[in-house]
Amino acid sequence: MADTLTSDPSTWTGSSLVSVKQITPSGLQLLLDVSLEMKTIVRLVGGDERLKHKILANVFYEASTRTSCSFQSAMLRLGGRVVCIDQLNSSVKKGETLGDTIRCLENYADVTVLRHPVIGSAAEASTYAEKPVLNAGDGTGEHPTQALLDIFTITDEFRTSSGLLNKTVVLLGDLKHGRTVHSLAKLIARSGTAGVELRYCSPPSLRMPEDVKEEVSKYGVKQGEYTDIKDAIKGADVLYVTRVQKERFENLEDYENVKDSFIVDANLMKSAPSKMIVMHPLPRVGEITEEVDKDPRAAVLQTDGERYVRQDGSSRPCARKKVCAAWVQD
Question: Any idea which residues carry the catalytic annotation?
Answer without folding.
Answer: 66-67, 94, 115, 143
